[in-house]
Structure formats: structure tokens, C-alpha cells
Amino acid sequence: APNGPPRFRAAAMAPCEECCASTNGSVDEACMAARAAGNAAYSAGQLGNAAAAYLEAISAWDKAMHAAPQPEALGVGQLVQYSAKGYFGTVMSCYPLFDEYFLKDLGSDQAIWVGDPGGHLRRFARKDLVPVSRELVDFRLAVLQNLAAVYLRQDDFYQTVRWADAALCISGRSPKALMRKGAALLRLNQPGPASDVLATAAAEVPNDIEVRRLLREAEQRRSPAWVCVTGCCGPWGIVCGGPVAQTMPQVVTPAERRPTPSA
User: 168: closest CA among 85, 257, 255, 244?
Assistant: First the structure.
């Protein structure tokens, strides 16, 4: 029988079944087979086997991504992985002649800056970026959400938050990832942060009964003096959802370009 208290089983939900076509440089048979095995194990209540299969799918995904053709230059609109930590973005503008690329983070849908927003955009070199197809990104998102569902049903709430955050790095307002993270934070006795996350989920799926139930529970359990990280939500009510992922895009100061020696 499935694990976990009944009131949290709905938050886990069934595994994602997004369609991912198998084309050159996209989802291959190894990825699909591993995810299918995970889905079958999940449906049978074999949660340990499901987690192992989904982790195998992530490993196969990584191999598929690096097996894709690597063009010398990238164009505007290209999806890329810009950090091995699981950060993805879209090329906003590029200057291949100078080996400079500027990105918008996929999870936050915001430009990637050096330091505070509005200062200097972070410059990426071509070697920093791995092009990735939309099919691969969607596949990874589905599997990450499935991992969060498995660990939530296993009452492993730290792992639930970990994998939900990884999904939110791809889609920062994914209702499934938000709900699973919020449910885990509640069980970790963090009702304030859970309120932030679940309020964002409720904004995305306002008619979802389980999301609203979890949000009400978080509101009842949080401290009377609680204020969200952005300062707009508190005892007076929920206004925003606040940041939803604990992991933020890594930003480093770009290296100074050295002058080219004259011939």
C-alpha cells in the first residue's frame, strides 16, 4: 500500500506524463524506458524502485543532452543549460564574434545579472553553455516532479524539497512542484515558507482544492508575527508567493577582457 498520511497523498499526485518525442538530440529510448519503469513502480506503490528508476532517467537525460550536436555559435531564443547545478536559460542576445551571450533564467523568467538587478548583465562564453531542446527540458521537469512526489509519499521531506526546487529552477510557477514543496515544508514545521510557496501555487491553480487546503493549514500554523521574505505578506494576508526555490542562479563577476596583442 502507498506510504504516507492520507492527507498528503493527494499532494503527491500521479506521475507526470508529458509527451516527449524522440528526435535527434532529444529524449532517447533509455530516458523513456527509465521513466516508464518509474511510473509503473509508482503506480504499484513500490516507491523505492520508482525513485531509483527516475534517478536513472535523469542520468540518461544527462547523457542524451551531451550527445546532442554542439554548434559553434548559438542564436537568440536557444535554450541552454548554463550550470551543472541544473540551471537553464534562454539566449536573449548574443555576439558570437566576441563570444558573448546574455541569458534569461528559465525558472525565474528574469535576466541574469551580475549583482543586483539593473546593473550589469552577466556575460556567458559559448563554452559555458550547453544547448538543449525543449523536449529534453520538459522531460527533465516531468521526472523531477515525479521524484518530489515519490519522496513526499515516503515522508522524506528534505528530498521532496530538493527535487521540487530542481523542478522550480526550470518552471518557477509549476503548480505540482509548488504544492509538493509546500506540503513538505509543512511537515518540516516551516509554515511560514510553506505559505509563500502555496500562495504561489494557489495563484496558478485557484480552484485546486488540495492546494487551498494546504494553504489554509499553513496560514493557521504560522507565527502571528510572520512576514514573507518580500515583506508584502503577513498577518494582514497573503499578497504574493515570494521566492519559491531555495536555489538561485549562480552569478559571478565576469572576467576582464584582455587586449589582443598587436601583430
Answer: 244
Q: Which residue has the cell 524539497?
A: 161
C-alpha cell at 186: 509543512
- Phi first, then psi, for residue 16 (nearest 5°) are -75, 150
Beta strands 130-131 and 87-95, pairing class: unpaired
The rounded mean pLDDT for the chain is: 84
pLDDT in tens, 17-57: 433 333 335 789 999 999 999 999 999 999 999 999 999 99
Which residue, chain included where needed, has cell 550550470?
83
Q: Are 135 and 26 in contact (CB under 8 A)?
A: yes
Rg (CA), the chain: 20
Q: How many CB atoms neighbour CB 73 within 10 A?
A: 12
Is residue 200 pLDDT above 80, yes or no?
yes
Q: DSSP strand E in 76-230: where? A: 79-83, 87-95, 100-105, 113-114, 120-121, 130-131
